[in-house]
From TrEMBL:
<feature type="transmembrane region" description="Helical">
    <location>
        <begin position="293"/>
        <end position="319"/>
    </location>
</feature>
<feature type="transmembrane region" description="Helical">
    <location>
        <begin position="148"/>
        <end position="173"/>
    </location>
</feature>
<feature type="transmembrane region" description="Helical">
    <location>
        <begin position="118"/>
        <end position="142"/>
    </location>
</feature>
<feature type="transmembrane region" description="Helical">
    <location>
        <begin position="224"/>
        <end position="244"/>
    </location>
</feature>
<dbReference type="InterPro" id="IPR036286">
    <property type="entry name" value="LexA/Signal_pep-like_sf"/>
</dbReference>
<feature type="transmembrane region" description="Helical">
    <location>
        <begin position="64"/>
        <end position="87"/>
    </location>
</feature>
<feature type="transmembrane region" description="Helical">
    <location>
        <begin position="426"/>
        <end position="453"/>
    </location>
</feature>
<feature type="transmembrane region" description="Helical">
    <location>
        <begin position="185"/>
        <end position="204"/>
    </location>
</feature>
<keyword id="KW-0472">Membrane</keyword>
<protein>
    <submittedName>
        <fullName>Peptidase S24-like protein</fullName>
    </submittedName>
</protein>
<feature type="transmembrane region" description="Helical">
    <location>
        <begin position="27"/>
        <end position="44"/>
    </location>
</feature>
<keyword id="KW-1133">Transmembrane helix</keyword>
<keyword id="KW-0812">Transmembrane</keyword>
Length: 463
């Protein structure tokens, strides 16, 4: 292989596809990261009155911290997707294609070639990530949030170190994975394992705290998290492994295991060196033995997603019917989305509540929360007094400056349809999201596309 310029320049061209307009595409991808992060922030704002405000307040607040926090995570996952799609170009699979073989024997330094590839990929990732980071800051400025510079360096460093970890692990995978598809799955799995490691080591407790993130040195405090010391160890070890493994692997000619590259008139037989048993693996260039387990897993996951999405749509229809005054009972349970703060803290806004359907003979007790209908409108309140077939009900949470007891009302026992049995805040948030435009796209449009084009998607993933 002959290069017109240096190996580093070649790697810089290949670090992003479409060489003629690679810089423009880098800029476009960076702006896309900023715009989609900005869009996700507004999607989360539609879920403000849900469990997300209590569990992940760091993405729900009106601040630069929230938009940047969303950005560093989206940049991480979309970069992982980019690595998976363009794995064959970005990493060391070219060594298995013997692209380095002649160059090594012609006197090229393998260490220099390794660092050229590493620097090229690192430069591209840094350029895109930094430009996207600046873009999300400029977009957030349009919202006129208070600008606090103190936590910007910390957030930038967190996102960048995640990309470095994912990149160096992907390089290691490319040196040990025998097939491209296996390496792609390893990259995808490692992207989630890195996040899991951050949770286990308490790193998320630090980076989700706006006060702590205003001091960048809190990231390196070993009393709060051991993630960064471990990160340094992993990156150094992976770098050394890549350096020596790439040099050793490039010195030997590798027989391609991609049977799709066989000529159309060639058959292939493999012999087990231990048992000396021969196995026909390809006839006329077509592979017989495929990685069936992986393909079945992909098919099952697609089918599961379609099934779950359709089930959610049916469930939402049932819930919406109950919320409009026509309660629907599922095996004796009435699901109901509570859209008021009158029963806090027992029931929060947009919680999915469950009411056990009762008959007229069921003994209603004091302090029970009941679902009743009055003037064709469903209400949820607590039983305050019982006078035979007449019950006095009241809300738990009165607005400030309101007179306690002003909302009491007397209802007939026959108007009670159910007794409160529990709630699910996460399902409530899911239903709230499903009723947004993005939710409709995710649970209606995407499943419909997958339903009709799942075979093409499976074939694409098999490549």
């Amino acid at each position: 292989m002959i290069y017109r310029n240096s190996f580093l320049k070649k790697e810089l061209r290949q670090a992003y596809t479409e060489n003629k307009i690679s810089t423009n595409r880098k800029i476009a991808f960076a702006l896309f990261l900023g715009l989609i992060s900005f869009a996700f922030y507004f999607v989360f704002q539609t879920l403000q009155e849900s469990v997300l405000s209590d569990v992940v307040p760091e993405i729900m607040q009106p601040s630069y911290f929230s938009t940047l926090y969303i950005y560093i995570h989206l940049a991480y996952f979309l970069s992982a997707g980019y690595y998976i799609i363009y794995y064959d170009t970005l990493f060391f699979s070219e060594i298995r294609k013997n692209s380095w073989y002649l160059m090594i024997h012609m006197g090229y330094n393998p260490a220099r070639m390794f660092f050229s590839k590493l620097l090229a990929l690192g430069y591209t990732a840094l350029f895109v990530y930094t430009l996207g980071f600046v873009a999300i800051i400029l977009l957030t400025a349009l919202l006129k949030f208070p600008f606090i510079f103190a936590y910007l360096p910390s957030l930038y460093l967190v996102g960048f170190t995640d990309l470095v970890m994912l990149t160096i692990l992907s390089m290691v995978f490319s040196l040990y994975a025998r097939t491209i598809i296996n390496a792609r799955y390893w990259i995808g799995v490692s992207a989630f394992l890195i996040l899991l490691l951050k949770i286990v080591l308490g790193h998320y407790d630090v980076i989700s705290n706006r006060i702590a993130m205003q001091n960048i040195f809190n990231l390196f405090d070993m009393n709060t998290s051991l993630y960064f010391p471990l990160w340094i160890v992993v990156v150094v070890i992976c770098g050394l492994v890549c350096l020596f493994r790439a040099g050793n692997l490039a010195r030997y000619y590798n027989l391609s295991e991609d049977l799709s590259l066989l000529p159309p008139d060639v058959s292939l037989i493999l012999m087990n060196s231990k048992t000396e048993k021969k196995e026909l693996v390809a006839i006329r260039g077509k592979q017989i033995v495929e990685r069936k387990l992986i393909h079945k897993v992909v098919t099952v996951l697609l089918a599961a997603f379609i099934g779950v999405a359709l089930a959610i749509n049916v469930f939402i229809i049932v819930i919406n019917a109950s919320s409009t005054g026509q309660e629907v009972s599922i095996r004796g349970v009435i699901p109901f989305i509570f859209q008021s703060n009158t029963m806090e803290p027992e029931i929060m806004v947009n919680d999915l509540t469950y009411f056990q359907r009762i008959d007229p003979q069921y003994p209603v007790e004091l302090e029970q929360i009941v679902l009743f209908k009055e003037n064709n409108v469903l209400y949820i309140e607590r039983v305050a007094e019982i006078h035979g077939d007449r019950l006095v009900v009241d809300i738990d949470n009165y607005p400030p400056m309101s007179q306690i007891g002003a909302m009491k009302k007397t209802i007939s026992r026959e108007n009670i349809h159910g007794v409160y049995s529990g709630r699910n805040r996460w399902l409530g948030a899911l239903i709230l999201f499903a009723n947004t435009i993005m939710g409709r796209i995710l649970f209606l449009l995407i499943p419909a596309i997958l339903l009709f084009y799942h075979e093409q998607i499976v074939k694409l993933l098999k490549r």
